[in-house]
Design a protein that fits this description.
The chain has helices spanning about 5-15, 20-35, 35-40, 60-70, 80-90, 105-110, 125-155, 160-165, 180-210, 220-250, 260-285, 290-305, 315-320, 325-340, 350-375, and strands at about 45-55, 75, 95-100, 115-120. The protein is mostly helical. The protein has two domains: about 5-40 and about 185-375, no CATH class; about 45-165, abc type-2 transporter like domain (abc type-2 transporter like fold, 3-Layer(aba) Sandwich). It has a four-stranded mixed beta sheet, with helices on both faces.
Length: about 375
């Protein structure tokens, strides 16, 4: 068979196989819009909280007013006891509880230390952090007013009183994620994993399809690999440009890296994944096995790549094992380039590792295809 005949044959077998098409076309497109949807509305509004005011003084009312002034806090209950508020939290009627202790005003007047308790549903870190942050702002705002007022009583000028109370000012700058956006943080990395997993599933199904039908066609191994590289590689390069172009713009994810650097890093990532997929497809016996095997690896890879769970908290053996998969250096490189503003020279380790994977998995894919051809030959 000529290379053109092999190319046509591979193209037909890929795009007439419904599971493959649903994976490498439908799956990629579906994930691009459905996966980011839960995180698209990142501004939490009207978080329901209960205030247990055991002091019932004008001071406690001012604190409650300050808390209610927060844009995302909605005081929907004012319970008489902590038990009532806890029951409301268990029943999911509220997401947080603020307890103002009895004798708060008296203790402050006597300069006795007191505690205002703030609790929130910690199952959702964004909710927990927002309730605690806004409650603390309301409490500290009133605390500052009291402290400055006490200094004014001592005939200290207003400006001096403010300086006396606040010896320093704190300015917080959120590096790499100024808006503290979950979308900006997790979606770019997950897109890399989606590209890898969908390509591996598609090539795994194709390899299983050929292994089920031994001697389906005879052609040089280099033609088989080159034709799949041309077809699948071109398709997934288009997918990658679609993800990091249109989809990034659609979800307002920032572009920091140049298109040239993104493509430069993306080429070895796609090639390494493609050759890994051919190798994987050559190992499995039937096309039904590809999807569950690859899906089983998805969750471990999400955590082992170090963008959701800190890499420092992951055992070294898992970290090193994850380096066998192209998504690990690719995610680290893409995040450094596009989210952290690194130069390409700063990701040469990840770039070099991807090219090593290209060579490794190309050799392995040639080996497994040659072994499969040998098994399919008639033996005397």
């Amino acid at each position: 068979m000529s290379f053109l005949e092999v190319l046509k044959f591979e193209f037909k077998n890929i795009f007439t196989n419904i599971p493959i098409v649903l994976t490498i076309v439908g799956g990629v497109l579906m994930y691009s819009f459905f996966y980011p949807q839960p995180y698209y509305n990142e501004v939490i509004q009207t978080l329901r909280v209960s205030v247990v005011d055991l002091d019932r003084s004008d001071l406690s009312k001012k604190i409650i007013h300050n808390i209610e002034s927060a844009p995302s806090i909605n005081v929907v209950r004012k319970d008489n006891s902590l038990l009532e508020a806890q029951n409301a939290l268990i029943e999911n009627k509220i997401k947080g509880i603020i307890v103002i202790p009895a004798h708060l005003k008296r203790d402050i007047a006597l300069h006795v230390s007191t505690t205002i308790a703030v609790g929130a549903d910690a199952n959702y870190f964004l909710i927990f952090g927002d309730i605690v942050k806004n409650a603390l702002q309301g409490i500290l705002s009133e605390s500052a007013t009291i402290q400055v007022s006490n200094l004014l009583v001592k005939n200290i000028p207003v400006v001096a009183a403010k300086k006396e109370y606040t010896h320093f000012s704190l300015k917080t700058i959120n590096l790499f994620n100024p808006n503290m956006s979950y979308t900006h943080y997790v979606i770019p990395a997950v897109f890399i994993l989606i590209l890898q997993q969908t390509m591996l599933i598609g090539l795994g199904i194709l390899g299983g399809f050929y292994n089920e039908r031994k001697k389906l066609y005879n052609a040089p191994i280099w033609m088989k690999i080159a034709s799949r590289t041309l077809i699948i590689g071109t398709l997934f390069l288009t997918h990658m440009l679609f993800y990091f172009g249109f989809v990034f713009d659609f979800f307002s994810i920032p572009h920091i890296a140049s298109a040239y650097d993104m493509i430069k890093l993306g080429v070895p990532f796609l090639l390494a994944t493609l050759f890994l997929g051919i190798f994987f497809g050559g190992l499995i016996k039937n096309q039904e096995s590809a999807t569950p095997i690859i899906l089983f690896t998805s969750l471990p890879l999400i955590f082992s790549t170090g963008f959701i769970w800190p890499k420092e908290a992951i055992p070294d053996v898992i970290t090193y094992f994850s380096l066998l998969f192209p998504c690990t250096p690719a995610i680290q490189g893409f995040l450094a380039l596009n989210q952290m503003g690194a130069s390409f020279d700063e990701i040469l380790v990840q770039y070099g590792l991807l090219w090593l994977q290209v060579v490794l998995y190309l050799l392995l894919s040639i080996h497994v295809l040659r072994c499969n051809e040998y098994k399919s030959l008639p033996h005397q």
